Amino acid sequence: MFFSRxxxxxxxxxxxxxxxxxxxxxxxxxxxxxxxxxKSLIYRRPTVCGMYNRLGxxxxxxxxxxxxxxxxxxxxxxxxxxxxxxxxxxxxxxxGKC
Length: 98
Known about the structure:
transmembrane helix
């Protein structure tokens, strides 16, 4: 039985594009029901572009990333511009050149 009055924190390690990320997911709705806790176990991949502004102003730093469209982008910010223009049809395949 789950603890229905306790905030649950789930540590989930993912292998995403060859890199290991630590995601900490907090579920505040688990304070009130067990079924909400079970629904929170369905994991959605966080967006890579959340930290970049929507103005399209990027630095010229060279840290190449490869998109699922097999194009190499100069850095993640430039990739995020293409991601937004494609309305999410391309994703980050891996870090480095394609």
